[in-house]
Write a structure and sequence with these properties.
Blueprint lengths: L3 E4 L2 E3 L5 E7 L8 E7 L6 E7 L4 E3 L7 E6 L4 E6 L8 E9 L3 E4 L3 E5 L2
Parallel strand pairs: 2-11
Antiparallel strand pairs: 1-3, 3-8, 4-5, 4-9, 5-6, 7-8, 9-10, 9-11
């Protein structure tokens, strides 16, 4: 079972940027898909972005053209670069690692608050 540790969350003003990191306890290249999800109070968890082992990337509609996901397998880390942040981006952001034979693994989450 992989341990995933997120970091980089915090308070930022609207229009600002943050970069989240998710570091795994084992080589993340073992996983089929690495993803970021988020969950705002009273709402369901939603997909933000995902990157496959082959490098295919997809984004949730609300973050397209503002967020960028990337992975550095040598550092066992997935990044989420967030720009042009809006108040409705406020949420707890979770890292997810998926492998077909093991299912999902989740990090503990990092809070992002966008407010003036």
């Amino acid at each position: 079972q992989v341990q995933l540790v997120e970091s980089g969350g915090g308070l930022v003003q609207p229009g600002g940027s943050l970069r989240l990191s998710c570091t795994g306890s084992i080589n993340i290249s073992r996983f089929d898909i690495m993803s970021w999800y988020r969950q705002a109070p009273g709402k369901q968890r939603e997909l933000v972005a995902r990157v496959t082992r082959l490098g295919r990337i997809s984004y949730g509609d609300s973050v397209k053209d503002r967020f960028t996901i990337s992975r550095d397998d040598a550092k066992n880390t997935v990044f989420l670069q967030m720009s042009s942040l809006r108040p409705d981006d406020t949420a707890a952001y979770y890292c997810n690692a998926f492998r077909l034979q093991d299912g999902d693994s989740w990090g503990q989450g990092t809070q992002v608050t966008v407010s003036s």
